[in-house]
Write a structure and sequence with these properties.
Structural class: alpha/beta
Largest sheet: 10 strands, mixed
CATH superfamily of the largest domain: Ureohydrolase domain
Shape: globular
Helix content: 25-40%
Number of helices: 12
Distance between the termini: 41 Å
CATH topology of the largest domain: Arginase, Chain A
CATH class of the largest domain: Alpha Beta
């Protein structure tokens, strides 16, 4: 079954774009037919689904509004991108999930990165289940003001989708990270649950104090799920859940650029953008720019994930005498990016080989040199051992 059966062209008005704009260079799903996606690297997929949005119903109109802004941004030379249109709404939300899962899985098999424009954040669940066909475990990074865990027995919605991911069988999840959460919105029991699973939590203040430390977090993700309410209201008013504090717009763009630069990341989504609350399309314009920076990052990928070609890396061994562990660090000569090698059980190579090289920073290496165990290494070790 071809993916075009699940998709319909966007409803934005036809217009002329300058030759330097994406609108003149992107392959579009239109009334004249479905675009050729051979050799395409990135595909934009709109999903106007908001029935499980926890009241943020206007986010169903976001995909086409974001497109209108994106098409007017400058084209990145040499990057083949297709806009394959919008997922047809299902009779039920589960039908929409199934359609998105199928479309994403087809794109992933063709090594095309889906850029999902929602819609509500529960669509992350369908993005996650799309990896079943690849038969690989994945890491998810969610940029959000809160933790969308909810009660285990509750119905799936934008505030509970994480519990459904955790319950899904067969489990595909190796690690889950929440970036930019604000403590005053979070139930302490949810924090404890996440920590017991050796997942990662990064408060808003931690991220903003040193944005460079966000890079290895994002570099470890297969899926990036971004709730627009993680951005402060002054920069992104277009959501029912906007609040005074949050990331700045340029910080959100930086996170998306980091995601684009990551050799590991293979799908990304922006959710909860509600056009009913948007002031002069400020939020849809910002979302379009975030996607642009993701593409710029992608166009600068260096393919420097550590491999057997050790001549491309500097290798450092740090013996943790107090913990009876040796940590092996790798520094890419090409990009100066760092990784830590984490040992795993004998015989588990096929299951864990994608996760035993953990992205880190120079600060993690410095920490190890002072006999202090980096949190990233320890949490990965607990899951691998």
């Amino acid at each position: 079954m071809e993916i075009e059966q699940y998709l319909t062209p966007s409803s934005i008005s036809a217009k002329e774009y300058a030759p330097f704009m994406w609108g003149s260079n992107i392959r579009k799903n239109s009334s004249s037919g479905f675009p050729d996606i051979d050799n395409v690297k990135i595909a934009i997929v709109g999903v106007g689904e908001a029935r499980n949005s926890c009241g943020n119903d206007g986010c169903a109109a976001a995909p086409d509004k974001v497109r209108e802004n994106f098409y007017e941004l400058s084209y990145i030379s040499g990057l083949a991108v297709a806009d394959i249109g919008n997922i047809k709404p299902g009779n039920s939300v589960n039908d929409t999930y199934s359609a998105l899962e199928f479309v994403c899985s087809e794109l992933l098999e063709r090594k095309i990165i889906p850029v999902i424009i929602g819609g509500s954040q529960d669509l992350t669940f369908a993005n996650y289940t799309a990896y079943q066909r690849l038969q690989q475990t994945v890491n998810i990074v969610a940029v959000d003001r809160k933790i969308d865990l909810g009660e285990i027995d509750s119905e799936i919605n934008a505030g509970t989708y994480l519990s459904k991911i955790l319950q899904f069988q067969p489990s595909l999840l190796f690690n889950y990270s929440v970036m930019g959460y604000q403590t005053h919105f979070v139930n302490s029991e949810e924090v404890e649950t996440i920590k017991k699973m050796y997942f990662d939590l990064y408060r808003l203040g931690q991220i903003q104090t040193n944005m460079e430390e966000a890079e290895p977090i994002v570099r470890n993700a297969d899926i990036l799920s971004f709730d627009i309410s993680a951005i402060r209201r002054s920069d992104a008013p277009g959501t029912l859940h906007s609040t005074p504090n949050g990331l700045y717009g340029e910080e959100a763009c930086q996170i998306f650029k980091y995601a684009g630069m990551s050799d590991k990341l293979s799908s990304i989504g922006i959710y909860e953008l509600n056009t009913l609350f948007d002031d002069r399309e400020q939020t849809t314009g910002l979302a379009a720019q975030m996607i642009w920076y993701f593409m710029e990052g992608f166009s600068n990928r260096k393919n420097d994930f550590p491999s057997s070609l050790e001549k491309d890396y500097l290798k450092y061994r740090v013996t943790m005498k107090s913990a009876d562990h040796e940590i092996v660090f790798y520094k890419s000569i090409k990009t100066d990016r760092w990784w830590m090698e984490v040992p795993y059980r004998i015989g588990a190579k096929s299951k864990y080989e994608r996760h035993h090289m953990v992205p880190c920073s120079y600060e993690d290496y410095q920490l190890a040199c002072t006999e202090e165990m980096p949190d990233r290494w320890w949490q990965a070790y607990q899951k691998l051992s």
